Description:
Elements: H1 15-28, H2 41-53, E1 62-66, H3 72-79, E2 84-89, H4 92-101, E3 106-109, E4 124-130, H5 138-147, E5 149-160, H6 165-173, H7 183-191, E6 198-206, E7 215-217, E8 232-238
Parallel strand pairs: 1-2, 1-4, 2-3, 4-5
Antiparallel strand pairs: 5-8, 6-7, 6-8
Amino acid sequence: xxxxxxxxxxxxxxxxxxxxxxxxxxxxxxxxxxxxxxxxxxxxxxxxxxxxxxxxxxxxxxxxxxxxxxxxxxxxxxxxxxxxxxxxxxxxxxxxxxxxxxxxxxxxxxxxxxxxxxxxxxxxxxxxxxxxxxxxxxxxxxxxxxxxxxxxxxxxxxxxxxxxxxxxxxxxxxxxxxxxxxxxxxxxxxxxxxxxxxxxxxxxxxxxxxxxxxxxxxxxxxxxxxxxxxxxxxxxxxxxxxxxx
Length: 245
């Protein structure tokens, strides 16, 4: 019997926020820069590498890239031997371009906060929310993405830290539309996920000397309390494997 997608309720600015970002990214689609909301390709590269490192392995695994943007994470997953990759994004033109140019992955247009987006997707070994939760209806998205993670699978989320002064300036630029979350808020939400085996996180800080890499990264921890707030947060949540019959 197919496990039904959970019912979710609205919160915060909801559809208004997502409509804002759908329009915003429709305009960005025509620009040549591939990194969208990052300052440059080096920041995007290190962020992608950290997300891939958090998987524990990609080979032979099914993957959902929720909020796929231009598809770079999806392309990397496919190149690393994923069994199947599905990318979902709210930007219609971006999804149409990906469907035409990269048919080896499955691409869907839809909101990651909308149960209808997940109606026939099934469940995945690896579920990514890469730089997207700050634009979506957070509680809805977490519930739906966690439901999409099969037993033994892993959910991986990367997003800005609300406590960081750099991120606070972006919140002022987009009042009411940009919703990053603090480490303590994410700890509470991830700890409360049903059927959770374990969770962990790490912080990203911009380096004063960026000649080698833009970020310093913390070790993995389940106690995300740092004296200096990181710029970004990488969280993972692992489901336990099903017990043998």
